[in-house]
Amino acid sequence: MTSTLLTDLYQLTMLQGYWHERMSETAVFELFVRKLPPRRNFLVAAGLEQVIDYLENLAFTHQEIAYLRQSGFFQAKFLDHLATLRFTGDVDAMPEGTVFFPDEPVLRIVAPLPQAQLVETRLINLLQFQTLIASKAARCVLAAPGKSLVDFGLRRAHGYEAGLLAARAAYLAGFSGTSNVLAGMEFSIPIFGTMAHSYIMAHDDELAAFRGFAHSQPHNVVLLIDTYDTLKAVDKVIALAAELAQQDIHIKAVRIDSGDLAALALGVRRKLDGAGLQQIGIFASGDLDEYALQRFYDQKIPIDGFGVGTKLTTSNDAPYLNCAYKLQEYAGIPRRKVSSGKQTWPGRKQVYRRRDSNGILTGDTLTTMDDRQEGEALLQPVMRDGKRIRSPESLETIRKRIAMELDSLPAGLKALDEPSGHVVEISPALLELTRQTDMRLGLN
Amino acid sequence: MTSTLLTDLYQLTMLQGYWHERMSETAVFELFVRKLPPRRNFLVAAGLEQVIDYLENLAFTHQEIAYLRQSGFFQAKFLDHLATLRFTGDVDAMPEGTVFFPDEPVLRIVAPLPQAQLVETRLINLLQFQTLIASKAARCVLAAPGKSLVDFGLRRAHGYEAGLLAARAAYLAGFSGTSNVLAGMEFSIPIFGTMAHSYIMAHDDELAAFRGFAHSQPHNVVLLIDTYDTLKAVDKVIALAAELAQQDIHIKAVRIDSGDLAALALGVRRKLDGAGLQQIGIFASGDLDEYALQRFYDQKIPIDGFGVGTKLTTSNDAPYLNCAYKLQEYAGIPRRKVSSGKQTWPGRKQVYRRRDSNGILTGDTLTTMDDRQEGEALLQPVMRDGKRIRSPESLETIRKRIAMELDSLPAGLKALDEPSGHVVEISPALLELTRQTDMRLGLN
């Protein structure tokens, strides 16, 4: 559970200001991405379940209030009031797994101003990270159709929660599972793993290491063959396979973790096939990302599965999203930020998605909530009066949604490296509301 | 506290293998960085305190063992054994705040093989992230000497722990504090914060927003002036300053968060000075990193303090370190990995650092633990028999160490953008041990 103090101090100093000025009317905030990072044509929404959990449990502990009391920033009466604060608002959001584009709200909060303000930091912290990883993972899945992908990135993920939630996001996007055992327990994600180089190195002899491992877990025999000389190690695997077969133990796969993976995989496959061991798979890992996966796939390299690690869980080529959570309406009046380069569309909004007769996405329209446009409305009710209004979606449900979403992308959006030119249309109703808002603000 | 299941499955399957083969002699693992990321000339070690805490508390809960039991990977007797596992080993490490270079071990574990193996994932997860952020933060500090820097990056940090530990790492590196309230409570780091654009936007009038805020917290008046028109907002600040002064309320600073920060700061400074308000500082934020800070500094832009956010807490230009935790010795015999591109130096090692008469770093030598070289030995005893042997260092102690370390860097290493050419010397003793190890492995 998240400490409610995991927030920026300015949220609390603003809350003191709102309290002082008795400003607690209804506020509407929306969370959206301003601009896609380089080399991204779309994003995949993820993390809503953790947001709901956070909002349902929002409360300050006595210890936290005591810390704030001695911090010197706050008046005693304000803190008495803060100690009673709970989230009682409404949330509408795109279901996890929905593909989305810049300027489209993925989540809307309607709540008394102080509540809607306070939750900003953690909402962004939760949604941007899982969205980032689900989007990166979706690119890996698109790059290597039919291959088994496993998240190996816990060690270089940015801490505990990043490792845990990256495993979740990658699984949602179509990964087969994760090496992260805690993610297995917390989310019932399939877990994968066998041995590291240290296992081989701790033995005086590579073959003895292989044999010992196979006997210790006869149903999970995947052997790491690149500690010393990969092709020589395959000869040992072939000899061992015959020996183990007599004890009804079967080697499932070999793993290569360094060197020229494509060349080694071809050599290993040739040797294994030559020995009649077509059933032994090849699993590769080491510095992989969607670009490497696509190269292997295009060149038909005989690798059956991949461990994707650091570059997945850090989203290394785009380690953050230019996202924002902005006030769109307060006390019934639409609001708009016009800071240079950070303009926002005012008011409560909805996104309508259009598809062709084959279900392929053809366009989105961003409009005001009261307007109706052709297509499917993407934002759906999630919480009312501070309570969730439907039970949590299973990871399998979200996985299916993402698989369908990726299927429904036009080829241009699926491309790893080419900008798609996809544009979100702005409705006449939203343009008119923006004009009126600017007029009220004296901006035109 | 960390779940001991926050690890890779292969650690546990290897442990089952070791258990099956009765391999529990003493193993030596060292954690090091193979290669600096682009645009880094050095790294700053951080995260040791969290590692010690993790190792002292290492144990599986009943619930975790129950999960492993139903996972299908493990034998019942092995899990009974695993339930009793604790960390009883020795740890030597560079103190937090030590500057280090590739191939230099920052931490050594000497423990029965299963224990030393199991902890790999979380050790890397903790040390690589804080080291990454402390190193990025140190670059920001070097880029803007004498300026006050504040961590604003919680929202786009990769989850809960990343936000918390990034605040710690940045403070160690010389930041003045953080916006992250939880980091303030957990680590006694100074916290900073006043208002966001939403505060201004929720009011119908910008001046009313400024006034309300100032009255609500008269000792923390920093006003955000870029919501609509930055220079027009300064006029309102000037008018308000006179009004507030009569009530003995003083505006400390204004903040600019968008637009051409340098040009705006110059314009704002001119207006404030023209009104005799030299004492009102200028604080800037928005998409900052060490390169932007250096530009402002070199151009003498009148900005007194900076909020550094996303690019700090994601270390955006280098979001991970090529680091490894490798078996160096088992059962008294030095070990070495020779996988392509991933070769390691065998055996227990020590790093000696040489300085000139002004204390400026002149070179490091990597050698075997038993060898003696000129200079200061960087790895120091931290834990013995699973217990810490000294009390935790205060953050202030580590801050002072980093400040001294940064002071002692030669100019070439301080440069943000030029490769330094700094080379870690390998001692004759270590070269000889490597030769012997390769001979034993039949590699030469």
Looking at this protein, list some descriptive labels:
TIM Barrel; nicotinate phosphoribosyltransferase; 40% helix; 444 residues; 2 domains; 7-stranded antiparallel beta sheet; homodimer; alpha/beta
Could you characterize what this model shows?
The structure is a homodimer of 444-residue chains. With 444 residues, the first copy, chain A, is α/β, with parallel strands linked by helices. The first copy, chain A, has two domains: 9-133 and 320-440, nicotinate phosphoribosyltransferase; 143-313, Alpha-Beta Barrel (TIM Barrel). Chain A contains 17 helices and 19 strands. In chain A, strands 13-12-1-5-3-17-18 form a seven-stranded antiparallel beta sheet. Chain A has a six-stranded parallel beta sheet with strand order 7-6-11-10-9-8. In chain A, strands 16-14-15-19 form a four-stranded mixed beta sheet. The model of chain A has no long low-confidence stretch (mean pLDDT 96). The interface between A and B is large, with 107 and 107 residues.
Q: Short summary of the structure?
A:
The structure is a homodimer of 444-residue chains. With 444 residues, chain A is of the alpha/beta class. The first copy, chain A, has helices at residues 9-20, 48-56, 62-71, 76-82, 113-118, 120-143, 160-172, 181-187, 197-202, 206-216, 230-245, 261-274, 290-298, 310-313, 395-407, 411-414, 428-440, and strands spanning 26-35, 43-44, 90-93, 99-100, 107-112, 148-151, 177-178, 222-224, 253-256, 281-285, 305-308, 322-330, 333-334, 349-355, 361-368, 376-377, 380-384, 387-388, 424-426.
